[in-house]
Design brief:
Elements: H1 2-12, E1 16-18, E2 23-26, E3 29-32, E4 38-41, E5 49-52, E6 56-59, E7 66-69, E8 76-80, E9 82-83, E10 95-101, E11 108-115, E12 147-154, E13 161-167, H2 172-175, E14 186-192, E15 207-213, E16 215-217, E17 222-228, E18 236-241, E19 248-257, E20 262-282, E21 289-300, E22 304-310, E23 318-326, E24 331-333, E25 337-339, E26 346-353, E27 358-364, E28 368-375, E29 381-389, E30 392-398, E31 406-414, E32 418-425
Parallel strand pairs: 2-5, 3-6, 4-7, 6-9
Antiparallel strand pairs: 1-2, 7-11, 8-10, 10-13, 11-12, 12-18, 13-17, 14-15, 14-18, 16-17, 19-20, 20-21, 20-22, 20-23, 23-24, 23-25, 26-27, 27-30, 28-29, 28-31, 31-32
């Protein structure tokens, strides 16, 4: 009955024309996918779905009402002329996927979109476990357009790389009150089922990553230039007010002894609306004072590294903490690190992370037995290793690994020294 339903619709709307394995919609003809049906497009060419004249529309409005487009290894601009429901005016909200890097294997794109019933974005799409905002640590639904998009690359060995344009409905029923959304702030965000997050409002596995994509074009009611690498191709997407996500995802924050003083280094995986950092210093871990201000990268989707050398250590135990301030004045503090450069120590540098191994260097002030642990994002132990450090530089490696894209934790426990850091596998 599902396939019959689609055939009846295509017959009724005579401006829908099939030719050489294509779907061509002319002069606002439209297709409604309903009752959990699949519209299968068994043609990977970019023009297998096309519109002419004044355009056309495909209406899904349910996660399970899906276009299965057998794109395979094809590249080029693949456009889906999505529209909202007939009841809300069948407003055009097209999705464009420019496949810039072909996937490997006979894969397909599974595509649907649907408006949610309420401003709290319920019911959630099936893969969503929470709508937690990392800024407020409460439900962030009111910062989100009332619509989910399923954009899933399925059945590939390596997923394709794409640049997307996501159209949206600017009407009040999707971005209006009680939502708290500035339309020009809307950008794309993905749900990563394998991303570890903590906080009182997180429920179940996964979270909305703080990484944002694209540039808002309110005049055309879309978010464009959404560049998605194969490793970033997760299936569940929303449009969110960019002032809501966490401004900075910190990878590392360390203090090491050098001949010049204490070198303080930190790195970020992403930065959103990040104005500046401040390094604060204390001699008792309670009373901190400002040491230096360092400009942030503003908005960045690449890893950034920062450093500063504190030459006034006074030969005693000192504490440092990192303060981050965004353009709106919001403030976040990160963990405290300490260092006493009069004591024995080791420093860990030169990380090289590959799919099957991790290499790094440990510079030790003395011989010392250490134990190395590598954990995944869920805190599960991947591997461990015992090592006897020599005084000076030690080149170390963890072999026979199988590392996918994501965040890992490296921990080194010595007889007198400890070290831990986050690592990101691109």
């Amino acid at each position: 009955m599902k396939n019959l339903f689609l055939i009846i619709l295509l017959t009724l709307f005579t401006s829908a024309i099939f030719s050489q394995g294509r779907v061509v919609l002319n002069n606002d003809g439209y297709i409604v996918i309903d009752n959990g049906a699949y519209l299968v497009v068994d043609n990977g060419a970019a023009n297998a779905i096309a519109v002419t004249g004044s355009g056309g529309k495909i209406i899904s409005e349910d996660e399970d009402d899906v276009i299965k487009w057998n794109v395979g290894t094809s590249t080029g601009v693949h456009m889906i002329p999505w529209a909202t429901s007939v009841a809300t005016g069948a407003v055009k909200i097209p999705l464009t996927l420019n496949v810039t890097a072909a996937g490997s294997g006979a894969g397909n794109l599974l595509l649907s979109t649907h408006e949610t019933a309420t401003a709290t974005n319920t019911p959630w799409a099936s893969g969503i476990t929470n709508m937690c905002s990392s800024v407020t640590n409460t439900d962030g639904s009111l910062f989100v357009a009332d619509r989910f998009w399923l954009i899933n690359a399925n059945g590939y060995g390596t997923k394709p790389g794409v640049t997307m344009i996501m159209g949206y409905n600017s009407a009040a029923n999707e971005i209006g009150a009680p939502n708290t959304i500035t339309e020009t702030n809307l950008e794309a965000q993905r749900f990563n089922a394998g991303f570890a997050a903590t906080g009182p409002c997180y429920v179940g596995a996964g979270s909305w990553e703080t990484l944002l994509f694209g540039t808002n074009n309110a005049g055309s009611t879309n978010v464009n230039n959404i560049v998605v690498a194969p490793s970033d191709f997760h299936k569940d997407w929303i449009l969110v007010d960019k002032t809501a996500p966490l401004p900075v995802e910190l990878l590392t924050f360390n203090a090491t002894c050098t001949a010049e003083g204490v070198e303080i280094t930190w790195s970020t995986a992403t930065e959103i609306n990040n104005d500046y950092f401040q390094i604060e210093k204390s001699y008792n871990a309670v009373d901190f004072f400002e040491l230096i201000t360092v400009n942030g990268a503003g908005n960045s989707q690449i890893q950034n590294s920062y450093s500063f050398i504190d030459i006034e250590t006074a030969g005693s135990l000192v504490y440092y903490r990192l303060k981050q301030v965004d353009f709106n004045g919001s403030v976040k503090y990160y963990n405290i690190v300490s260092r006493n450069c009069d004591s024995d120590n080791f420093e860990v540098t030169n990380f090289v992370m590959e799919t099957n191994q991790l290499n790094f260097k440990v510079n030790s002030s003395k011989e010392e037995n250490i134990k190395i642990y590598l954990y995944d994002y869920r805190g599960r132990l991947i591997t461990s290793k015992n090592k006897q450090l020599s005084k000076g530089n030690n080149n170390l490696e963890l072999k026979a690994l199988t590392l996918s894209t994501g965040i890992y934790m490296l921990s080194i426990i010595g007889e007198t020294n400890n070290f831990s850091t986050k690592l990101m596998k691109k």
